[in-house]
Write the structure tokens for this entry.
Amino acid sequence: MPSKSSARLAALTVAAVCSAASTVVLTSPAHADAVRIHDIQGSTRISPYAGKQVTDVTGIVTGVRTYGSSKGFWIQDTQADADPATSEGVFVFTSSTPKGVAVGDLVKVSGTVTEYVPGGTSSGNQSLTEITRPAFTVLSSGNAVPAAVTLDEESVPDAYAPEGDPAAKGSVNGLTLQPSSYALDLYESVEGMNVRVADARVVGATDPYTELWVTVKPEENDNRRGGTVYGSYTSQNGGRIMIQSLGKPADFPVANVGDTLAGTTAGPLDYNQFGGYTLVASELGTLESAGLERETTRKQRRGELAVATYNVENLDPSDDTFAAHAAAIVNNLQSPDIVSLEEIQDNNGAVKDGTVAADQTMQKLIDAIVAAGGPAYDWRSIDPVDLADGGEPGGNIRQVFLFNPQRVSFTDRAGGDATTAVGVAEERGKAALTVSPGRIDPANAAWSNSRKPLAGEFVFRGRTVIVVANHFNSKGGDQGFTSQYQPPARSSEVQRHAQATAVNAFVKDVLSVQKNANVVVLGDINDFEFSGTTRILEGDGELWSAIKSLPRSERYSYVYQGNSQVLDQILISPGIKRGCDFEYDSVHINAEFNDQISDHDPQVLRFHP
């Protein structure tokens, strides 16, 4: 995947020449003299002047961006019209570092009105109205910058977005903005204008690109750790907004979820590919720490089996995170009996040389766990076919069972490999795997370029437990919440639905042999506990997602664009659920922190088989 900066540069290069691949352009451009910024912005998402030349557009410079691929400056009209749907600000894209212009300058700009679509039109993103190929003149300097529009709990509507126009394939582009009714319409109505947030709580930690997320609606689906929980497709949390800086990255606050940007954070409102509406701050609030701490789960009791899932994010021998992952497993997870590890890479990581073995990766992790005071774990896995399971090219990621042989034994049954399907047999009236470890239906098209589920048979205190480790298809390619298409399309879930169908069919086979079998299906499901994927996995009661035993405000394992949400799950068979003799814990050690060693929080289930 290209970096954010390179992707933006490529897209803007195309935008500068008005390519239809990434801009909305009208044919046969006409000229329009002395229009105002609100005329250019119009009352919909697409400028009525798109593709046209405009001259002598005046405004006060509110911000100058001299870094990155999106260089230029924002201007704002001081004489607003009476229509709340029309923005008074616009971005002037100069492509190279703008010279001879500063904040407070009154300028006169001529150029082409362009609707730039971050990520290209295929992304489904909304467009950003810009003036491109500009020529400008500074009329005066030292002028007062227009007062910032306040975004807060009162001004941002609870409803997120209008339904798209069916006649336009669900696009909202042609709809008149209703800023008092919908959050996305409000943000669009102040696109390019100077805006401010005050005492904003951080809901997405500072990332490597010097960005963070805050909420301007502090009570919107909040939780005890300061996050904003995403609990349904119709509750998108419209108070979230990304914060970037117009200053140097070194000056950007290093924040965790729950911290506060105290005082005022203000600057022009931008729209970008990676977060939608973004406040590009020329003034940053003061960071006040909430003192968020990493969680520690309790130790399993002697008769409890502790099973965990943990996505260790492309772990290979070259990484410097082994000691940190080991400490997390030993201390925060309290050395579970079985750990499903996702994103274990082969012995040389992303190098494409045919290597598929991961024994060096695993030995390095096991040694680190011992050094951290943990048990001498054993492990089982199946090497994938080279370059067949998706993920980072060359990395050959796979799931691995890590288990404590002092507490649990693994039942090895020969014959499992990358292409052989595991089956279910009856052995003395109990369900048994035909191969262990084994892969579920690896030839099924559902697993094309994706990780195949790993099934293993374990014995704990004389009782068999069948565990299925998963890493479903990612959400790559889905339209974002701020898409021009509402509701946005979730194209990636088609493959996850097929994957869930295959795993559920396998569990049905197990339960048809042994109705009360102990089956645990876990891993990075890449979908929510309320999703269609989860419903298919659960089937007609074959499985149940145990994270739903937690209060709604505590159901999350991942933070994306300021939304705390579920991606990692542990599902259990009726034999485990029936007695309610289990305990579930989403152990928050990564997702809410700027210094995370993975972007996922591990999950732990304790039960009596």
Notes: Residues 231 and 565 are 7 Å apart (CA to CA). Residues 493-513 form the longest helix (21 residues).
